[in-house]
Amino acid sequence: MSIAIQASTRTDDGPLLELEGVRTHFQTPRGVVRAVDGVSLTLERGRALGIVGESGSGKTILSRSIMGLLPTRGTIRQGSIRFEGREIGGLSRRAMRDVWGKEMAMIFQDPMTSLNPLMKIGAQIAEPLRIHLDMSRSDAWATAERLMNDVRIPAAGRRLRQYPHELSGGMRQRIMIAIAMACGPTLLLADEPTTALDVTVQAQILDLLGEQRRDRNMSLLLVTHDLGVVAGHTDDIGVMYGGKLVEMAPTAELFANMKMPYTEALLQSIPKLADPSHTRLNVIAGRPPDLVNPPVGCRFSPRCPYAQDRCREEEPPLIPTVEDPRHTYACWYPVGSPAYHETKARRQREAEVAA
Amino acid sequence: MRYFLQRMLQFAVVFFLVTFGVMIFMRIGMNKPGDPARTMLGGFVTDQKAAAVNKQYHLNDNVFVQYFYWLAKMFRGDFGISVQQNITVANYMKGRVLVTFFLGFYSLLWALIIAVPVAVYQAYRRDSNFDRAGNLFSFLFVSLPALVLAPVIIQLFVIRWAWFPRISEKVMPWQSLSGHFKNFFLPVVVLTLPLAAIFARLLRADIVQTLQSDFITLASAKGVPPSRVLWTHALRNSLFSLLSSVGVQLGALVGGALVVEQYFSMKGMGALLLTSILSKDLFVVQSVTAIVVAVVSVANLLIDLTYAFIDPRIRHARALT
Fold it and tell me: Residue A69 is nearest to which of B220, B312, B316, comparing CB atoms?
């Protein structure tokens, strides 16, 4: 497709997206909410990065910050966001409008409420084409039909003239993907794209996203609370906690060699099929931190089973591991360290005594 | 089709209840034993005349019989006579219908022309000074009915500045456009302001809510300019309270016309209704009510069709039944 080629032959070298100390704070009556509190990361062209964390970890606000799609009043934005080699961190909504939908597109969580109920599907897909690429109505609709074929919607010609309520949730999420793909963006931000869908449909949508990303040489930032979702569909994974990145690594490396007790806890909280039925679910005790008054030291320390005094006093920096410089983590006593084993053994003894 | 039949049945029931109810209440008011005609005609009539009127309109029959005689006549285009003025009701109403029609039409039109852009901009710039001023004014005019507003306006524009005539003559646009404007301006203003205020309040609230929707965020994320987000995506999805309110306010507008025509001495349907109620001119009251019911019902039917026109979900749900 001509549009996709146009987008992928952009000649800028260097990473597609670079974040440096990004902070997004909101002024509220309760105080300043530090939703995103100093995140730095790099996303290379054509790669997929998963951002994982509980609700309230700041992952959604991070994706919105990259997009610049934030409420204007009471929002404090700091740090640098470089996209396609240019600084977009401080741009106004007005200035971002030429980027939105054209170079950077977003897919939302709930396909049931994210489409305009009074507009035909075709018109909704055609809209960005007409705005950004100045297509005529008939060209835009023809392209919309092709996009619907691309996202495997059967009988696209007929569906084009239907309204959102005539389509199922999975179909609507495919439409959302078609809308996002329309102008051939180089970066796709997907915020929990499968959370509202049936499990069987989830896999289809994720596969479709991966396939579209490869076909169009597009980068993907996949935000989710589900480690299982990102496992098979991303090149790298970043784990967020309390508005900060606490661990980041290539996917296989992360699963093989995780350092943060929080990442470990997230993984353990996924129920396993091999477990006998009625096995107690592993939950992370406590609640996500209050982002108005975050805990001193490591933000995970109040909930961390391996926390020591130092964790509650001093904040650990994000440092690379010895084995793999691409693998960074922020922890004083990472998984596998002597202190970790010691505490783990002690916990186990205590549990046995209690039993 | 079934939907349409349903609506027709609804109309018939409403029409019956209102016109029959009006007749009953009018009759209660004039029920001197034995002789409604005498009440209608006033004190100084001969017995023969009273008896003739009673007989002609079956006034001494059972109310149901009476009602159906009236109904049957009306369907043949005979609205009866004004017993007071001794002319046919049709003649009596002729000319007056247009006055009230123009009053209602202009005030509805202007209320919408004012309210829609104001509400859209208020919602877009929520909590701005413009929004606050808009809320203040709409609150002010919602709480100022025509009854209060009219004397204030007359005091200012007629008595103090003498920009407009005291009495609004019934000048039609094809007679003199400037005269038409001059005579209708103030009454229309009195009717428009409260109406515009109600519409603006409703629409603003709905747009504010619609603007929180996911599909609005998606529209922005597609790079759609704010003006298009507002006027195409948000406005269309926010029209429903406004539309149903237009239907309700049409009925209220008749009451407003009644007051305004009185204040500006206009010879319209409202004034006619008021004088004939006071003089117990039964057939005039019944005919005017019948026309008002018919107009309001038809307008509400049109509004319902507009819903379906705007919202495909309503269209499809109706196609299924």
Answer: B220
Over residues A283-313, the pLDDT tens digits come to 888 888 889 999 999 999 999 989 899 999 9
Beta-bridged to residue A51, according to DSSP, are A223, A238
Are A324 and A253 within 8 A, CB to CB?
yes
The answer to whether residues B300 and B247 touch, using CB atoms and an 8 Å cutoff, is: yes
How many angstroms away from the CA of B103 is the closest CA of chain A? 34
How far is residue A246 from each of residues A17, A114, A298, A315, measured CA to CA in Å?
19, 31, 10, 11
The bridge status of strand A244-250 relative to strand A236-241 is antiparallel
pLDDT tens for A186-208 read 999 999 998 888 888 888 899 99
Amino acid at B173: P
**HSE-CB of A327 using CA atoms within 13 angstroms:** 17
* Residue that the structure tokens 């001197």 belong to: B32
Q: Which residue intervals of chain B are DSSP H helices?
A: 2-29, 36-41, 47-56, 63-75, 89-93, 96-124, 129-142, 146-153, 177-210, 214-221, 226-228, 235-236, 239-263, 269-278, 282-310, 312-320
pLDDT band at B230 (very low <50, low <70, confident <90, very high): very high
Quickly state the pLDDT bin for B172 (edges 50, 70, 90): confident
**Edge-to-edge strand order for the sheet containing A48-52?**
A104-107, A187-191, A219-224, A48-52, A236-241, A244-250, A328-329, A319-320
Q: What is the pLDDT of residues B36-87, one digit of tens each?
A: 777 777 667 777 777 787 777 777 777 788 888 888 888 887 887 777 777 8
Of chain B, the end-to-end C-alpha distance in Å amounts to 9
Q: For residues B8 and B206, what is the distance between their CA atoms, to the nearest angstrom?
A: 31
CB neighbourhood size of A324 (10 A): 14
Report if pTM > 0.90. Answer: no
As a residue count, chain A comes to 355
Is the confidence at residue A21, as pLDDT, over 90? Answer: yes
Identify which of A101, A117, A163 has the shortest CB distance to residue B222: A101
Task: Work out the minimum CA distance from B314 to partner chain A, whole angstroms.
Answer: 10
Domains identified in chain B and CATH numbers: 2-88 (no CATH), 96-267 (1.10.3720.10)
Q: Report whether A50 contacts A79 (CB < 8 A).
A: no
* Three-state secondary structure call for residue A25: strand
**In this complex, do A128 and B313 lie within 8 Å of one another by their Cβ atoms?**
no
Which of A300, A353, A291 is CA-nearest to residue A331?
A: A300
Cβ <8 Å between A98 and B223: yes
DSSP B111-137: HHHHHHHHHHHHHHTTTSHHHHHHHHH
pLDDT tens by residue, B236-275: 999 999 999 999 898 888 888 888 988 888 888 888 888 8
Q: What is the DSSP string of A133-172?
A: S---HHHHHHHHHHHHHHTT-TTHHHHTTS-GGGS-HHHH
Residue A4's pLDDT band, with cuts at 50, 70 and 90, is very low
At which residue do the structure tokens 């609230």 appear? B205
Residues A56-95 have pLDDT tens digits of: 899 999 999 999 998 888 899 999 999 998 999 888 889 9
